[in-house]
Design brief:
By secondary structure, this protein is an alpha/beta fold. The chain has two domains: 86 residues, Nucleotidyltransferase, domain 5; 143 residues, 2-Layer Sandwich (Nucleotidyltransferase, domain 5), CATH 3.30.420. The strands form two sheets. Strands 3-2-1-4-5 form a five-stranded mixed sheet, with helices on both faces. Strands 8-7-6-9-10 form a five-stranded mixed sheet, sandwiched between helices. A hairpin with a 5-residue loop joins β7 and β8. The longest helix has 26 residues. It is globular.
Length: 261
């Protein structure tokens, strides 16, 4: 079995694969204060709860946008699973040319979803990842990573309203019944939800206009389900795209080995 980690700013996605089949996936808090031992014990408990034998894990791969957490998860894998994980970054084989001015600036999660989307849908392709930040990643018809856009995520926007104003409350972000809010909460929900849908639609439109052919638009990320139904521009919703991309990159590299006892 293969265990994969998508370390994000807010949560870490963990996936367990047998071949191409995703057996299970979990979301845990990205906590920089936890030690490798604490993460290792938590992961073992998750596996045992699902009745997955720890000794069956033969490989691991990590994508991380939180550098302090990367060595902690690496250490947990080596100590508790006896595998040395691959880390998505410089030197890993992606099979995708990166046409960013400075390729090292591109977040590993963005490359992972780009590879997964191109493998499944070809190009041109546009991946919208609804996470802490909302990222837009563009892949050419020839399978090149062209770049994209980064915008504040929906929850970041809601939190900013609460923190930077004196009287606006912290609210649950969801689609309001009406665009015309009749309470402060409904008014905030209307502005956030409809404004966010407009932001995503406009960026998709601007990016599509710069390509020679209309891209296949794929959504992923934890907040995708909240807004995807509002946008006909999005052809596919793939909640597990990062995890599938990590499995794909592991297969393209195959360098993780068992750690000697």
């Amino acid at each position: 079995m293969l265990i994969v980690f998508d370390i994000g700013n807010t949560t870490t996605g963990v996936g367990l694969f047998q071949g191409k089949k995703l057996l299970a996936d979990w979301k845990v808090k990205s906590d920089r204060e936890k030690t490798a031992d604490e993460y290792g014990i938590m992961l073992k408990n998750l596996l045992q709860h699902g009745k997955f034998p720890v000794q069956k894990i033969k490989g691991a791969i990590i994508s991380s946008v939180v550098p302090p957490l990367t060595p902690i998860i690496q250490s947990a894998c080596e100590k508790f699973f006896r595998v040395k994980p691959l880390v998505v970054g410089p030197g890993i084989k992606t099979g995708m040319p990166i046409l960013y001015e400075n390729p090292a600036e591109v977040g590993s999660d963005r490359i992972v979803v780009a590879c997964a989307a191109y493998e499944k849908y070809g190009g041109p392709c546009l991946v919208v990842d609804f996470g802490t930040a909302t990222t837009f990643d563009v892949i050419s018809a020839r399978g090149e990573y062209l770049g994209g856009a980064i915008a504040p995520g929906l929850e970041i926007s809601a939190e900013a309203l609460y923190l930077r104003t004196a009287r606006l409350p912290r609210i649950e972000v969801r689609k309001p019944k009406s665009a015309i809010g009749r309470t402060t909460v409904n008014s905030m929900q209307s502005g956030l939800f409809h404004g966010y849908v407009g932001l995503v639609r406009n960026i998709i439109s601007q990016i599509s206009a710069e390509l020679t052919a209309r891209p296949v638009v794929v959504a992923t990320g934890g907040l995708a389900g909240l807004v995807v139904g509002e946008m006909a521009e999005i052809a596919h919703c793939e909640p597990d795209l990062v995890l599938q991309g990590l499995r794909l990159l592991y297969e393209r590299n195959r360098t993780a080995d068992r750690v000697e006892k």
